[in-house]
Amino acid sequence: MSLYNSKKIETFKYWRIIIEYMQPQADQNCPFCMISSGKIPAKEVYSDDRVKAVLDINPAAKGHVIIFPKNHYPIMPTIPPDEFKHLAKAAFEISKSVRSSIVSPTNKIFIANGAAAGQQSSHFLIHIIPSDTLVNFELENNQEKDTNIYQALKKNLNIMLTNHYKRENVQNQLISTEHLLETDKLRAKIPEKISAKGHIKIIPKKKIDDNNSLQEIFYLASYAATAGFEYLNAEGTNILMDECHGEIISADILPRFSNDGVNFQWTPVGLAEHELDSIKNMIFKNAMTIDIQKKQSSANFNNPKKKFCFEEFKKSIISTDETFISRKLRRIEN
Fold it and tell me: Which domains, ranges and CATH numbers included, belong to the chain?
């Protein structure tokens, strides 16, 4: 049966994003790809060979910045590991630049994967939002704890992170725990306020301000989101991290479903053009000190203009270790 059989695809609402947006010509009409190439003007605050950061044109707060890979990836699981590491580091460093420029006590690092999670673009984005005026991101306790769900998520998370350590050829750092997962640096737990089915909270046990620790919390957040897709058949996921004074102090991972009652939409803050220019200049000046390792280990990095080919992507993931994406693709195809 064809991969594009509409009845099969309809069963997997979330995966329509992959099929629709990972075609070879997917980036031609993508506004963020056009911003990267200079075809659309934007108030740029940071750029390197892999990522770009600009002011959001519909900001949730003064200093709201969007960070995105220059290559076209629709959702987080499709981003190659090396580029994901670079993107995570860039997000953290730019968040510090935003906070020092706006003099905000904390920032929200916000990710929306999938339409059910509020993703409105076919290009993966990370939002950096000064949170002193951000009221719509307060999480509410509107879900009961389902022990069976969390037992399954715990099992999946530990398997995923064990496999991650094997792939990275590093020592397994998992610690036996009553929580969902624990390492010497991080703890994944059931939050006191459960705002969505399968909601997971990650709490650092140590100061998260170095590159390796930062990558670990981003990876754990990514795997927690993946576990939600695997077990709950979620249609999307939100990741919210709190950055305060140069540290990541917590991360919430919320599996999302259509009409689940969770809402992270915001009313744009009205700012005059001269205010936006002033904000851009302040953040740009602070971001000039950012020095992110740009080691290129992916052929796709060496050619930013290269079109992303869905068939090549499909072959690559099916030829490697079993992943949640390859399983979903095979279910659609069969």
Answer: 25-137+267-308 (3.30.428.10), 145-263 (3.30.428.10)
